[in-house]
Amino acid sequence: MANYLNIREAAEYLRISPHTLYKLVERSEVPAAKVGGSWRLSPAALDEFLDGKKSSPARSPELLIVEADETVRRELASIAMSRGARPQLASGTEDALLLLSAGWAPDLILYGMPDDVQVAFDFMSQVRAVAGDTRVAAVVSPERASDLKDLMVHGWLIVLPAPVERPEMVNLIANL
Question: Which residue did the predictor score with more confidence, 127 or 160?
Fold first, then answer.
């Protein structure tokens, strides 16, 4: 039978603070299982985690946030940075296309949809022309999501309900 470690023991094993380990476990960066309200960690899984960290450091995902509302733009950037992503901010499609035309290819474009769906289609067509297969997550109200079904069929558009919530954004970034 394998011996499992509690948070304190695992933190000692990793030579980090229990607080840091709690954060890693909560973000699912370290393999753990919750048993009866307490976390349990396998020393073998911790060794695999460490070996993976040593051999291939994770690259921070790059994100382009295209949103007209400065408050929303800053909040999305804050969420992205809290999850280790590197966001670039664009107040509109022109700024975004300038960044993309310069050869920068982010892992994801988070696009706050304007009221005019045709403007969104035009922007996404231009993104396709300069950024290839870069995924686009459109933040759009649920009642307008059906307007985007043609784009979703092609598999390069993810629709997030507006206003975007922190857990949705965290999950999106975690899957990059």
Answer: 127
